[in-house]
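Zinc protease
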Amino acid sequence: MKFKLLATAAAVSMVLSGCVFHIDASKHDDNQSKKMQTVSQEIHKTNTQKQNNNKVFSQNYMLEELANGLKVMVVKTDYPDVVSLQIPVSVGSRDEVEAGKTGFTHFFEHMMFKGSKKYPQDVYSDILKNSGVDNRAYTTNDYTNYHLNFSKEHLAKVLEIEADIFQNLSYTQEQFRTEAQTVKGEYLKNNASPIRKLLSAVRSEAFDTHTYKHTTMGFFEDIQAMPDQMDYGQKFFENFYVPKNVSLVIVGDVNPSETMKLVKQYWGKWQAKGVDAVVPVEPKQTKAKYTHVKNDGLPGHWLLVSYKGTPWLPKQQDRSALDLISELYFSENSELYQTLIVDKQIASQMFTYNPETKDAGLLHVFVKVDKESDLVVARDLINQTYAKVRTELVDADKLANLKSNLKYSFINGLDSSQSIASTLASYMHFERDPEVINQLYRSFDGITAQDIKKVANQYFVDSSRTTVTMSDLKEVEGFGKEVNLDSVVAVLNQKPSEYHFNVLDKTNDSPLIDVNFLFYSGAAADPKGKKGLAALTTNMIAQGGSQTRTYKEINKAMYPLAGSFDVQLDKEMISFSGRVHKDNAGIWYKLVSDQLLNPGWRVDDFKRIKKELIDGIKSGLKASNDEELGKEVLYAKLYQGHVYESYNYGDLSDLEAITLDDLKVFYATEFTQAKLNVGITGDMSDKLKHTMFADLAQLPQGKESRLMVADAPKLTGRHASIVEKSAKSTAVSFGFPIDTIRSDKDWAALWLIRSYFGEHRSSNSFLYQRIRQTRGMNYGDYSYIEYFPRGMFQTKPDANLGRSEQIFQIWLRPLRSNNDAHFATRTALFELNKLIKTGMTQESFVATRNFLSNFVPQMVASQDKQLGYALDSQFYNTEDFVSYVRKQLAALTVEDVNRVIKDNLQTNDIQYVFITSDAKDMKKRLASEQASPLKYNTDKPADLVAEDKIIQSYKLSIPNNNIEVMDIESVFK
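Predicted structure tokens:
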């Protein structure tokens, strides 16, 4: 189980005390309007605090149901300026009951961005961009959520626009058909993920009649038919996008009463009744099921064991007990994990996932192994563990520690208005009442060891199990005979000093303490022939235990604290960051300081971590993540012979050869006081700080404060590297080195330019509009002037990736074919040349500057982000990030920006990278300048068709001898 707490982002604010201000509707006659009653009560402060101390979620909030059925929740926070608006709609793939019409919930998540007659897409997008609004959405089994984050002065306008779109959504047939093509591309992109394939397979096998049989994307044949389903699309919208299914969650720097007035002004007149989906009842499963999925070219072997669970009913104990079982027996802290991953090293990955669903869903355990024969071993160990749950009483201390962990983890999730709002939205779709959160945690509190045993015997039976295997093989040998749980159960029933490092002390009154041990070293310090040494060393520190405690013992001790200690590695920075509640700070510090200052250096840990890194490169990057692979190959090609050349986590052959003694030498050389920068925020005591500083003074003093990095190699001409591998689509990245980094005078202007041209994961950017929106070619198109890893997994950049050298990069998310990739690349180059030639208009400049000025506070909206960016400002020798950016932007003119375009951007010297299954075809296309005509499934405007004719033959001008074909096996070898 990935436990769903009141936040999925990082951090916590103080949990606000006080009386709940709750407004609800009284019952009313159908012929009369609802008359709202305001309930307000003053309670003595002491009694209020006592009452709320018994609640896990204790923020003040205002909750009201309007006469039309719309539910509104407003939470005022102390985070300045920023407001988060979440609009959960109680419709998900569960409601797709009509045959041949799956995927429409997700499809309408896309269509809701098309606007209305009053605010068509280009108009409202321009308004939101100028207002710095971060506007996104996602779809789940049971609900769809639209979330917007913005500065408080734009609240009224955002509410007005969204209300008009929800009530008057408008789009053309051309827009409908184009978006259907985009959704198809998204399906193909997602289909590359082994996890998604496993989930799709197990749901199809486990369910016979319930709509959980299909995923949120839907069945592929239904997606293919979508372009011709416009009439059904309108019917779907009218049935489900109605007030009784919609909630507004507004969290931030707002006045609740005034906010409620605005909601009523714009949303109160919405009248629509809608139709409830009649979801078929799933018959009781009568036997264990198994299926195998052949996945061509997949390295290793995957196993998924899933059991039927229970609906999410927070007042009942079944679901809570199942969640606790998942965490106790199948998480990283479990004995099974230690057996499979750490001790016997049978598996390279293991994790659990139990989504909260309105109806009975599935409880999953995923395992990845290298050897086919280990699939049976892993499967049997999983099911034997379930048998163990049915026969033993869990240790009382272990259960108490888990409950403590859940409590503090919950608190750790409330670090920003956005995290509070997003979590509330994820619960509002159940009963549209945030008190379900407190009901859930009260349910946890009441569960005993006997309850867990009882629930396990009810749900973990053979007839509730569905198992899936997936690999490159046609079938798995020896997998025919399953574990009989009843038989196993029967058997079990039988039996302070001077220091030389920098300190950034930003302590405050927050009960959460964040600490960042930032070393100015990293992968750029890897010696020749030992690429990956920094990665191995840092992971041994973070995941290899200490001299006095094993990694397993540290995790066990850390667990009840809900503390964290993680590492992030880049070329010139190694960041060990952690968080803990101030109540547990002393114990937490003893654990993490022991790891940092006295690493364990155990051989078994070394072998395990090396294996995980190698598997991460082979399976995680090279096999399963074409988007990140293309970007990393681009960096490797641009920095040949430079310390930036190798992948951060190493080359495979070098990793194999690195020894434990190599790690010890790297640790002694690079982890010095001179390179250390300590950042602290939260309510850490002076006593603990002094202890920490005295301990860190034990590190070698060192001489160099940071790595010396040479200028990037000079790139001359146009080059292309084509990586051939098994792939359903073609990923594209290209770029060139630039001299401008964050501390340079022109950086803010260049940062504005890349935002206009390709803001990460933003539908407002120019490239996105030209390639994805207008032509429906892929899932997004973005540009960067700073290193941005893990871009497919997050919407905002991480801190502590400071570099002395950067590149200008364009990332085109995977295209449907080589032809489309060729056309999209030509389009990007075509538009880049136009930008260089004509520059930005005054209107575009002002809109982008407005967006960034409003957006930049969201980048540092949590406590740990604020600390990370403050440390980065020290690295670049700039002032506070938000102030620095806003001051620089305010001083810019469009003339400045267009000069910076001329000074920094060019198309004569470019490195392209293509990830494709047909390198021969891609090389032929590039070398011959083969035309790449684009085909649509709907009529397009004449001016677009005319432009396409120019672009389809637009020359990339890459000399044949500059086109390199690489087999995937040779990459990072």
